Amino acid sequence: MSFKSSRHKKVRRLSASLPEMLKDRGWERKYDQHRVFVDWEKLVDETTAEHARPLKVVKDVLWLEVENSSWMQQFQYQKLVLLENLNAYLRVSRFSDIRFVVEEKTKEQPEKVSSAIKFVPPPTELIEAFEKQISCIEDEKTRDALMRLWYLSQACRRNENDQHSSP
Fold first, then answer.
1. Domain layout of the chain by residue ranges
2. Which residue has the higher pLDDT, 163 or 12?
3. What pLDDT, on the 0 to 100 scale, is given for residue 83?
């Protein structure tokens, strides 16, 4: 027997033994129930899939995470139909109940409004010196825009106390 055929035989035996192993270890029911996680969007309608998702299975109870309390109330009304449809999908197990929990959203802290940038007008001498430098620009709009840009670049300063300022 060649190495290739021996290796191929082992692969087939492993794939054939996986269902046996699940059954022997008592994992067959859990595996069956957890298939719902993978096939969720195929098992429920589009609205349900959009606003709820399987979270966990504990002692044959499927926990669904729902978008908000309004959807939780809506799914309470649909619970029996949903339970019936999901149990029809399962092969060797059943869900005894479905429970709902509102999705835990991480609340981002609003950025602290601080005086990270302060406005300090440049000294009059610097303004006059820059105006003299750009006086050779003939186009008045260009000269004004350049003056505004320079003025803001000089007037806006980072606070030394601000932790987010760059060196």
1. 25-102, 117-158
2. 12
3. 93
